[in-house]
Specification:
With about 750 residues, the chain is α+β, with helices and mostly antiparallel strands. About 35% of the residues lie in helices and about 15% in strands.
Amino acid sequence: ESRREQDASCDDESQLMAGSRVVGSWSRWRRVVVLSAAVEVVLMLVVSGSRHSAWSGPQHWSGGFTVSGSAGTPLNASSSSSGNETRGVLLGSAARSAMARQYATLSGLEASGSRRPTGWSGLAAYERQVARSASTRWLKYKRELRRRCLAAAASGEARRGVRWFTTSERKDFAGYVSEELAELGLCFVPANETRWPLDFYVGEQFESENAPRWAGRARRLFARNASVGAVEGLMAIFGSKDSYAQLFWHCKDATRRQTSRRVLCPNAWLPSFNVFGDENERSDKFRRNVVTKHEVPYFDRLFALARGAAAPTWWIVKPQKGTFLSRGMHLSLLTTSDVNSRNAMLSWIANNVVEPGCKERKVDRVTCARRMVTFQIYVHKPALFHDRKFDMRFWVVVASVDPLRLYLLRHAYPKIASKPFSADPATLGDQCMHIKMLLDPSCNVTLRAFVSKFPYGFPRSTASPVFFQGLSFPALLRQRAAYAGTSPHKYRHDRARPRDWPLKEQFWSRHVWPAVEKALAKVVMLVRANLSAAATRSPYRTFALLSPDLTLDDKGHVYIEEVNTNGLVMGTHAASGGAGNLFFDNAYVRGFLRLVGADGYPRAPDYAPALDAAITAFCNASAANARGCTPRATRAMATAVHEEAHAGRHYYRIYPPISCFERDPRSPCRASSSNAADDPDTPHHWPNQALFTDAEYAAMPESSLDKIVRRFLTTTDTQLIHGVPQVPGHARWPPRELDGALSL
């Protein structure tokens, strides 16, 4: 059925564009869609499930994913395909809204009155029924969009009311993200076959190994006002495992030399070091591997650091990017005897470059190859979720490099180990306990068995009460147990004290989340100087979506494990959008795309007079402001306001921080400094918000454009311009009751 729909649409395209190169481009796009049709048929359930009539456990607890239950509504849900949003300028608003409403209504089974069966046996048939309906409707919807795009191209109106986009070829960008862009009203065309400037690109960085083939001539392909998801120099800083260790030692140098930039070095950055040298893919060579100090940068300082640390220390060994598919990640234990001398430590490094199993020939040849690796401190006393180790995937949008603007998704995706955690060194080799998260196939755990371990299902987000119900900080619990006179082994977060989840959520919002904001912002501020020159030279706007992975220790301290520049975009249509669809997209991808201007900020005309008046008033407020209000600065101010107006409720700006304006006596605003609380010209900020000192601004260092835009955003109540509330902080999903405890 999918093939018939696409063949029919392709015939229509051929009639419209006979003899044109665009026919070939759409045929190529058709082949991509045909290859993914089987995946769409299975996964389109999530379109109707996660967006429109999601089920994910008991009806009143849809924050956790379970394998049986009744139909419910996803927490914090909003129909991202409803027709009440402005979606672009390709079609007339009435026709566009009608099409969107039709797709939203018919993509699920609400109209037919079908109900989801309970139990595992009836699940597959129901999912096939929903998938067939959703896939058919989506293909018809997409076919109509293609017809109109091609009609516009055939009539020579390619630059009149039509926005053209392209993506990289990776399945999440070419599949789900492209569908989101189509729903926003953009038209796809392969960049290497286009005849007109492109308006939008999202995909892998141009400097990555899997960059589009046309990346080298990107400057000639995009319009001057285009938005391009590629920041020059970003891959060299965050794009590989070895760059993490280089940044760590850069911070150590700054601290030793007492330079101003040391204030930007986050405590969340874990000690790491690289091991270079010639790689050898032959497994029979590993016994003769010898690591010299010249192959370990900063070895003497590393040795001093290791000797001063409390032994033993746990290290995770990560093959660097591009070395045999990054296989062979494992844990190693550094004991006191390993740091008795430099030679002892070099011997320990050499023995742990490959997995311990290589000595017994229990691991394959590629895994046992001699490679370049990065050693990183492993947090071996972690926070736990139902006694399992977890880490979290965050989304950070670098909306602009100069002036710097950073946005953060209000929650994170938890990735949980399949086995209960143990700090016993005897478990070092159990990767399913320590390293491989989220149903790694090698752990041989089924989705049903995995989810059944959690009483309220898998927590799809850190914003869900289900996450806090299972969360524990063992060290904090021991302290509280001692204070309460209770033995620690009886004080269990999910058994003896099930009503403590509101307290854990409060601790998270007040301490953990501001630390996350600060750590992520400071890392980007630290490297901004390396990116600003290229960003300033770029003829178009550049942005990036960073996907850092963070973990917590048993006291709630935050640590950055890595910063991904090409992380998987987890969405409802993605073939790898989360193990067993444990994750779902509730307009998070759409919010990111609209934030960076994919649809051209369609609401901008509605508040243009108020925006112009606000910028004029700001520039006339002082001589300093007037000098800083260059044409480029005023454009940056306007773009920052557009981002706020279109980002939706799931993203908020962490740099520059959002100001709080006292509109009524009950306002929670707090002055930035205690001695200026009554000064009306002093910026006020929200409680539990990460703020930055003058020393940190200077260490970045701020450009003149940074200063004027930050001053505008700090002193101007932008909510009065566009009408969208600007409130920072972690999301708190409803309902607010669990296990008899209520959190307002």
